[in-house]
Design a protein that fits this description.
The structure holds two protein chains of two kinds. Chain A has ten helices and no strands. Chain A has helices at residues 3-33, 71-107, 109-124, 127-138, 142-152, 155-169, 172-179, 184-220, 232-240, 248-275. By secondary structure, chain B is mainly α. Classes of the chains: A mainly alpha, B mainly alpha. The interface between A and B is large, with 44 and 52 residues.
């Protein structure tokens, strides 16, 4: 690797960290950092353009939404929903998937077959349809959205953990633990889990990006958190009706999603190559 | 040989198990998570109607018996009645299906041409500027949400340039933007996958031998490599096609495309739950069928499949 390449990679990592830190900070403190209350409507300021346009003012840096809400504040506060849903859903689906994968891979036989058939069934219902059916039955609430995404997302974890567990099961340190009558829970969580945790973290990282897109898709369709709580998908859906006169209400929330997801994916890919030098890209 | 046919039979059983599992999941959502009478009856239904409906669903019976009723109806193609349109759900789906298929096929053709094309270009000249360009292009394709891409395309090509219509389904021009929007993500995935598979293939001994024997490179790429890569590409493309059918929900909403995705969303808004439930069941079954067909195709394409050690 040449010096120039090294610097470029480091620069990419630094930008990635910066974006993700900003995202997390906004997710946690966005409500207090935002210059305006993003739900505050001011019809005299309806669809004010961003500051670099003629007629735009530094009061609303990224312009305003159709009902005069400040877009920058909306994006800052909207990070909260994305952060909350992605972290909770990934943690929940990861937990379920890892436990199923460990058990299926370690026990094998009939338990394994049942778990893998379950995964096949899960995969045969497309996520967005399952989400719409479940949210139709349960109602569009934040906790329901997290639940739906978690329920539909465990399969990747289960499959990867299962394959690795099957490989580890035959290794000597696991075998010796087994013959010395170590309880199965201890074998799974103390001997096998530490060896698969890197793969899990990589999948989880890449999954966060996926979940952010899922959630914004659901809120775009009006099936996630309900207004007035600002979310990036809902802001986009709002602005969509006005694209013939104003681009900013639908462009900037999209850029926010795009930049965050791109950074999360970079981080995931970086972790993967970092921990597994053999993996190509 | 017997081993191989057993493999196919196993696949068939697996597909059947999937269809059955889907019916159990959908039944559980409607009957345990939600309240079936409230979900499946219109809000303004009278008390007498509700009671009658309760009888027909067999809500006084055990959960198992109720499931049997649900499953028998399903197997007879009876997915219930839409209360917004007052027609059988299956008929409604059948009506809207061609539009969705048209969109999905156009999108996958776009994704195959651009994805496979750029993937090959990148693999034969790795680490050139266009390899880096397509790498960025694919990474952005995977990070940009479909609905945002769609809105940006409308803004550029319909509002600013006025080249293409913003929505609706009228002729070829109205198909272009929805197809690109829907195929965007798949293009990125197919491009990356083609690149890495082709790079791996170029590294195999039989290709290296061909190169050393002086076979022209276009014959190596399009004849030898493609034949070797076909099963892998087929799997990726079929998986993407399945994703496209589901992704059509959002794309159809943006472009007011009169397919099942839009029907699904409108039914979800209108509280027409039988339609929502029906579309999900039908789509899932189609998925299982497509996946099984791909397995069968693979089976005939690749003689190694199904031969156990």
């Amino acid at each position: 690797m040449t010096l120039k390449n090294l610097n470029l990679t480091q620069l990419k990592i630094q930008i990635t960290w910066f974006v993700l830190m900003t995202f997390v900070t906004l997710g946690l403190f966005g409500t207090w950092l935002a210059p305006y209350d993003p739900t505050h409507q001011d019809l005299s300021q309806s669809l004010a353009p961003p500051f670099w346009h003629s007629g735009g003012s530094p009061a609303h840096l990224l312009g305003t939404a159709p009902l005069g809400q400040d877009i920058l504040s909306g994006i800052m506060v909207g990070a909260q929903v994305s952060l909350l849903v992605s972290l909770c859903a990934v943690a929940l689906s990861g937990l379920v998937g890892v436990v199923i994968g460990l058990i299926a891979g370690y026990l094998g036989g009939r338990v394994d077959t049942v778990c893998m058939r379950l995964a096949d069934i899960q995969l045969s219902i497309p996520f967005i349809l399952l989400a719409i059916v479940m949210i139709g039955a349960m109602g569009p609430k934040l906790s329901n959205v997290i639940f739906v995404i978690a329920v539909t997302n465990w399969v990747t974890y289960a499959k990867v953990v299962r394959t690795e567990t099957m490989r580890l099961r035959e290794r000597d340190f696991v075998k010796s633990a087994r013959v010395s009558a170590t309880p199965i829970g201890l074998i799974l969580f103390k001997h096998i889990l530490p060896n698969v945790i890197n793969s899990i973290i990589v999948i989880a990282t890449l999954d966060i990006g996926k979940v952010i897109i899922f959630e914004s898709g659901l809120s775009f369709l009006g099936l996630s958190v309900q207004p007035p709580t600002p979310s990036w998908g809902a802001m986009l859906a709002d602005g969509r009706k006005y694209i013939s006169i104003a681009y900013w209400p639908s462009m900037f929330p999209g850029i926010a999603i795009f930049v965050v997801v791109l950074s999360v994916n970079f981080l995931g890919n970086f972790l993967r190559t970092h921990w597994d030098p053999q993996s190509k890209r | 040989m017997t081993h191989r046919w057993r493999y196919l039979l196993e696949r068939l059983i697996q597909a059947a198990v999937c269809v059955w599992g889907v019916s159990v999941i959908i039944f559980s959502i409607t009957h345990f998570i939600g309240d079936p009478v409230q979900l499946l009856m219109p809000a303004e239904a009278s008390q007498a109607d509700r009671l009658a409906y309760q009888q027909s669903l067999g809500l006084d019976k055990s959960a198992f018996e109720r499931y049997i009723i649900f499953f028998t109806h399903l197997m007879h193609g009876d997915l219930g009645q839409s209360y917004r349109f007052n027609t059988p759900v299956l008929e409604l789906i059948w009506d809207k299906f061609p539009a969705t298929i048209e969109l999905a096929v156009a999108a996958i053709i776009f994704a195959i041409i651009v994805g496979v094309g750029s993937g090959i270009l990148c693999a034969i000249r790795p680490n050139t500027w266009w390899d880096h360009f397509f790498e960025w292009f694919s990474l952005s394709g995977m990070a940009a949400p479909t609905f945002w891409v769609g809105i940006m395309l409308i803004m550029l090509f319909s509002v600013e340039l006025r080249w293409l219509p913003t929505s609706g389904r009228s002729g070829m021009t109205s198909l272009v933007l929805p197809a690109i929007t829907l195929g965007w993500y798949s293009t990125a995935v197919i491009s990356r996958m083609t690149r890495s598979t082709l790079l791996e293939t170029l590294d195999t001994d039989f290709i290296k031998t061909s190169v050393l024997k002086g076979t022209p490179s276009h014959i190596i790429i399009f004849k030898h490599c493609m034949k070797f890569m076909l099963p892998t590409l087929l799997t990726i493309i079929s998986l993407q096609f399945v994703t496209l059918l589901a992704g059509a929900v959002i794309t159809e909403t943006i472009f007011s495309w009169p397919g099942i995705g839009r029907l699904l969303i409108q039914s979800a808004y209108g509280g027409d739950y039988p339609v929502v439930q029906g579309i999900t069941v039908v789509c899932s079954i189609i998925f299982v069928v497509i996946q099984f067909s791909v397995d069968v195709a693979q089976f005939f394409l690749d003689p190694r499949i199904g031969q156990r050690q």
